[in-house]
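User: What would this chain look like folded?
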Amino acid sequence: MLADWGVSIRRACKVLPFDTSSYHYKSRRTDPAAIKKRIKTVCETHVRYGYRRVYHILRREGWVVNAKKVYRLYRELGLQLRNKTPKRRAKAKLREDRAPAVRPNDVWAMDFVHDQLATGRKLRILTVVDTFSRFSPVIDARFSYRGEDVGATLDAACRKVGFPRTMRVDNGSEFVSRDMDLWAYQRGVTLDFSRPGKPTDNAFIEAFNSKLRSECANTHWFLSLEDACEKLDRWRRHYNEERPHSAIGNIPRSCWQTRPETPALRTRARRKTLDPSGPRLGSRAKPARLRSWAAIHGNPTCATFAMDAG
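Assistant: Here's the prediction, encoded as structure tokens.
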């Protein structure tokens, strides 16, 4: 407009309208190449640093820059971190290599049971069981539990029976806490987390909790925390010393010293038949199928079993 119409700057700005100060403004922005290079160097050295931490490092080094500029350059360089990163624990492991326990203190399972006092105050009960021997080293009730409290309870129990090699837990806040991870790391215990929403991944402790609730919690009133601890510990001693366990041949654990067969062999042992050539006589055997096999092979023992099953 200035060249074509031959008007002054003031008049041209008045017609558009456009402020004359904006027309005369000269950018004082410096070349960001140097600061970009420094930001990239910091992020290459510390790959988990976000823009805020990079900003504080730059300010400490004497760069005159604000957080907004660091954020803009940080994103231009494509250095932003993922907001949702998968959790990685120092003593956590994947489920693909899960194997059954082969000896006592090989695998423990742990969980919480919720109950309340007669007054209505809530209780949290920590339950632990050995998946091989079915021994329960501790059942502890408190009004509240944190990760460090879980570690203290396990330390007290492990001083008597030793530390497990693996601990199966769910994804509760106490078990995924840093205190629990540090406890496991310092004592050489591997935390085996179950999949979210899959309680069957920790079926041993779920079955134990069901027995605890049906045989103890549902049959007693807990008048106080001390009363709850006393009754729970009494049931734990009964469970360990007197109660028969189907997993070890329906005998009390105190009578069980050694087990020569693995859980897999024990499962196959339940499927033995009275006649090696006959059908399996498990609890799911069909009476009609047994009767037909007995009629063909003339096996009176199998026929008697089929009549009883029918």
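Confidence is low (pLDDT under 50) at residues 258-310. If you want, I can go into more detail on any region.
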